[in-house]
Structure formats: structure tokens, C-alpha cells
Design a protein that fits this description.
The protein has 95 residues and is mainly alpha-helical. The chain is built from five helices and no strands.
Length: 95
């Protein structure tokens, strides 16, 4: 990506919140993939993750594990971590 870390982080946070939206709507598999992508992007910027972002992540993760089960969540989350931004956007916007 050619964007600076600030823009990359803002994009990652947007994906984090999209994952929360899809989780709330019951689209757990898409939410887990998008969350995996968001988590990878947030860590890639090298910027410290804010407490509010950590709480949001933890709440979404707990809901997804409740909906998918631990093993299935981890499988889908890891798959999301390897998505390109274009694929993550397509996944996030498919609902």
C-alpha cells in the first residue's frame, strides 16, 4: 500500500467496525474474515492499538466465537488475515 501508516490504520479501524456490523447482523463468517484482516492491518502499522479498539475487537471476537465456535472462528480469522485489501473490501461490502 502506498498510503502512510495513519491512513492504513484508519482503514483497518473501518474494517474493524464493519466486522462488528456484520457480526451484529449474524454474518459471522464474513465478520470473522474481515476481523482477521483488520487485526493484521492494525498490527502492520506498528502503531499502538488504542484501548477502545482493543475493547471493540474483544467484544466482536467473543460474539463470533459464541456464534461459530472456537475452532471455526480461528480458521476463518486466520484466512481473513491473508486477504488483500481489495478482497477484504469485497467481503465487507457483500452484505
Amino acid at each position: 500500500m502506498g498510503r502512510d501508516h495513519g491512513a492504513q490504520n484508519a482503514t483497518a479501524i473501518a474494517f474493524l467496525h464493519l466486522a462488528g456490523c456484520w457480526c451484529a447482523r449474524g454474518a459471522h463468517e464474513s465478520a470473522a474474515r474481515v476481523l482477521g484482516y483488520a487485526d493484521t492491518r492494525m498490527h502492520a502499522t506498528g502503531r499502538a492499538i488504542e484501548l477502545t479498539e482493543t475493547r471493540t475487537f474483544d467484544e466482536i471476537r467473543a460474539a463470533l466465537i459464541g456464534g461459530l465456535g472456537d475452532a471455526r472462528y480461528e480458521e476463518i480469522f486466520r484466512a481473513g488475515a491473508s486477504l488483500t485489501e481489495d478482497l477484504a473490501a469485497a467481503e465487507a461490502l457483500a452484505h
